[in-house]
Structures are given as structure tokens and as C-alpha cells.
Amino acid sequence: QKGQKVGVVIVPFPAQGHLNQLLQLSCLIASYKNIQVHYVSTKTHNLQAKHRVHCFDSLSKIHFHEFSTPNFISPSPNPNSSIKFPSHLQPSFEASAYLRKPVKKLLQTLSSKNRRVVIINDSLMGSVVQDFVSLPNAEAYTFHSVSAFTLFLFIWEKKNRPFPIHAEILKDLPTLEGCFSPEFERFMKIEYDCMKFTSGKIYNTCRVIESPFLDLLSKELINNKKRQWAIGPFNPVTFPKEGHNTKSHKCLLWLDKQEPNSVLYVSFGTTTSFSDEQIKEMAIGLEQSHQKFVWVLRDADKGNVFTKDSRKIELPKGFEERVKEKGILVRDWAPQLEILSHRSTGGFLSHCGWNSCIESISMGVPIAAWPMHSDQPRNTVLITKILKIGLVVRDWTHRNELVTSNMVKKCVEKLMASNEGDEMRNRAKKLSALIKKSVGEDGVKRMEMDSFISHITR
Ligand code: BUP
Description:
single chain, alpha/beta, seven-stranded parallel beta sheet, 17 helices
């Protein structure tokens, strides 16, 4: 006799930007009754996801399945190499391949115990869950970790269709050249072929940000009799306003003492390592801009983030002493969401990973965009040309060139200390207010979430 429950199995791609989003979605789904949420990854990646997520309170409601895989050795990121895409993501591809067998077994067990098994797999994990098709009561939904804008461009490009977007935007649209490594392209092709099994799609975005592109994607799915849900942003959009306590991260305590909108947050995510030369230019540019900053100075994540970092990132001589009144350097894991939500933070110098973009939009912080690879160049277009809440630091066509200290200085000054920067900040704050409204009790996020839950529990 099968139980009445619906078992939801979440299968993230094992890299920070993806682990995080799907754990946040797991927490959202786990708040509904009669649904058991199972989060599946390798042992190391589950540990990483739990360690860095924000919804700690809900974690106890989630069943974690931790499969041991061989200990993949991550090639050390080579920051001085000319190859800019993350070759150190290779262990994530390998770890994925190992998950197919144990995931198949788990799905069989859950299928026999539940009325229905609902799989939500990252678009890069279709091959891992493909065996569900042989189960009578299982269905799968694809989760896209990218913006609706990027996804729509990708689909239209694959089908060789003209883009239905304004000529002004089209003119500067970066090509996909240089965005992915050949291994990544091969991996994506295999995974996209598995997408034919999907019953629908879930996005970490919302109508407030990307309405026209969600409409385009929706038409495409209706033709295929599938549905989509835009449930984002998955991240919290507010934090308690009162001052931080002494246990708070040192950068938050420092931010408490600064003027509103006066600090630039600088971070390039978990898949980028800068060359020594580029770090020097950045440091000089920040110093010469005379703006205050919190700079997250770290290399890309390795396959196992709990192994010790070997590279000591060098800064120009005397830099730290000279900027000690102006800036804070963070060499460990930064509380990015709290930083972005802090009233003193007025700008974000970012690589434009989708998590960083949606977090910055949620908190009303404009972006100086310096894309490095994958979907980031096109996220830059969304931020700077469509939403108009940011500026471009380095154009994608010049991706192999050094960004000089002068370029850094000029962009930082423009974002933080010009009328144009103020206008971007105002637009970002308006967008953030709309997002905050959309995640409220009667907001569109709750409607989308309820609609998805009633669909899977039908
Ligand atoms: Br670094 C860093 N603290 O110190 P993206 C990152 N983050 O909270 P990615 C911290 O990691 P791709 C830190 O808030 C965001 O949720 C940040 O995701 C968090 O970029 C996440 O922005 C980073 O999507 O790669 O992971 O570099 O572009 O491939 O998604």
C-alpha cells in the first residue's frame, strides 16, 4: 500500500551557484504539508550546501541523501592562464556521472513508498535522473539556474530563429564565443538532450524582473504542452534592520559605521580566479577611486571547498595599510546577502553570475558588470541595457585584455559618485521595492509557488 505523500527529489548540479539555489527552493517546498523533500548530491557537496545556505531553520525538514563518490581532485585554478572559463568545474561533471546509479536506486525506493515522486533536477543533471522514465508514478521538472533572458537567447539561437528584441540591445549582444570550455559544451549537449523527458520548468526569477522573456519562454512550452513556474527570487530579500552583534562578520560591523550608499561591494563569485597582474590593477584602481569598499579577495572554489587554499593572493606593497580607513578585505566566505542588504552598500562590482545579479536586484544595489564566462556576459546586457541598473566595466569583445587601474577607477567613480550612478541606484531601489512586494503573502511568488505545489499534489 503506497502512502498518500508526494516525495520531491531535488538534484542540483554540484557547484556553489546551483547547490545554493536548489537548497533554497528545497526550503520553500518543505514548508508545505504532506510533501517530503529529498536533496541529493555527493557527500562533500551536501556539506558545502548546508554550510553556506541561509535557510538554516528549514534544513531539519529536508532529507539529505549523501552519496560517496571518489574524491575528485580539482585541478588548482590557474589564475595566470589565458583560459578564463572554469576548467576546475571538471570535478563537478565527473561527480555528476557517478550519481546516476545511486539516484536510480533512491527513486525506485521512493516510488514504492509514495503516491507520486516529483523530481526537480538542474538542467545540467538530466542524465543523472533519466531512469525515472521507467517508474509508473514519477515525473521530472527542469530547474534552470540562469536568467529567463539568457535561456530564451540560448533556445532561440539553437533553433536559428531571429531574436525578437530591440535593435539597440541586439547591436551589443555578446556571442557565446569564449563563454564555455569545450568540455562544458560537450557536457551541456548531453544534458540538454535529456530535457525531452521534462514535464515543466522552474526558474529562479520573477515577472517583476523578466516578464517579456518569461512570456516568450512560456509560449514555447505551451506549444509542447508543458508548464513553467517563475518562483524567484529564492534568496531572502530582507534581513533584520537592527545593528549587528559582536559575533557578526567584521565587514558587517565595519559597514554599520559607514554612511548610507557609500560602500562598493566587490566580489567575483566562486568560479573566477584573477591573475596576479589583474589583482594589482584592481587594487590600484580601487585605491585611486577614493571610494570605500568591501573586497572579497579569493580564488575560485575547488572541487572540495573544505581543502586548504594554497595561493596567497599578493597585493601591491603597502596597499592594506594605505586603504585601512577606506576598505575591508575579506579572504574567507563573505556574508554576501547581508552585505548587499546593508544600508551602507551602494554598489556592487560583480562578475554577474545569476545569483549575484538576482541578489543585488533584490536588495536594490546597482552593478558595475565585469563578466568572466558562461551566462555572465548576457546577464550583463540584462542588467545594463534592459533593466538599466548598472554599467559595463569591460566589454566582452575585450575579454582577453587586462582591465587597467584607470578603467576600474573610472567605473567605480561613475557608479558610486555621479548623477548617472544615482539614477541607476534609484532604479535598482524601485525594482527592489517591487520584488519585496512580490514575495509578500499576496504576492506573485506565493501564487507561483502555490500553483506549482497544487500541480504536483493534484
Ligand atoms: Br565568493 C562568495 N559569499 O564570499 P553566482 C559568494 N557567495 O555568499 P558563481 C557568498 O555565492 P556562476 C562569498 O551570494 C551567491 O549566492 C553569493 O553565485 C554566494 O556566481 C553565490 O553569483 C555565487 O551565481 O558562478 O557561483 O561564481 O556564474 O557559474 O553561477
